[in-house]
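Kindly review this record before class:
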Amino acid sequence: MKISVFVPEYGVIEAVTPPFRTFHTANDFLTAFGKKPIFEVEYVGLREYVPANNGEYTIRTERLLKDVAETDLLIIPPTFGDITKGIQANAAAIPYFKKLHEKGSSLASLCIGAFLLAETGLLDGKKCSTHWAYINEFREKYPDVEVEDGAIITEHDNIYSSGGASSLWNLILYLVEKFADRETAVLISKYFALDIGRDSQSQFAIFKGQRNHGDADIKNVQEYIEKHYEDKITIENLATLINTGRRTFERRFKEATNNTPIEYIQRVRIEAAKSFFEASRKNVTEIMFDVGYTDTKAFRDLFKKITGLTPIEYRNKFAKVANEV
């Protein structure tokens, strides 16, 4: 199986090298168990020597992208720094991505490599994953693509994508399992000390309300919610802040923030609760009251729905202060 790892102009070396190393390691494990190595792995790019991490490193490609007539899987890592500049620097690669997919190649984007993949138009009407911190920017730039908020791996019509940062390893392991076998994927997860079972970015996400919109009234409402999240907030009260009816307010809020008002309040409150769990020794009930909830079960259920962890699990994983016994 031919695997081509695209080395983008000003790519992120921490994302470029993992798939290359992983599929070579998969071959080593297959050989150790008396099986034939099945992966041919190569670096491809727009030129022979490609800078990475803003010029800090240089990667030598084995073939130019224009010379790749066919490959089974093309992996697209993220670019480093400004996304728009990264897209512009790699614009010449986009037609080749499309051509290879038309010939039957699978495509896989890692982290914000999804932006380069989306430039092909191949994701229009489909789902994809990307880094949780770039979801709003991605939605604005590619409104015809459905981003799976918090997803680690997305697969659709031989197109794969992964969530942020270390989530790329989960997609790489998934591809090893898909094209080799489960045993090899598990061995690699142990070899590189990776969590093969993680399926969500939610526990790492930091909620930052969508501000990149032109509705000044809605921005004022967002600021009000973020300052008064511990109080009892009703939709009717929020609507009166901008002198509009409830239905009109809800529509404008959703269009501007990609959240309903209720969802926004919940996300702000849970983000505040996360901060308390990280930095204080308050118990769950105290924090629940501090962020505006009075029903313990409802709070725990909502916290786990948003973060993927229970309040106690979250504290144990991310607390900045020692837990009291």
Remarks:
- The chain has a mean pLDDT of 89.
- The longest strand covers residues 40-45.
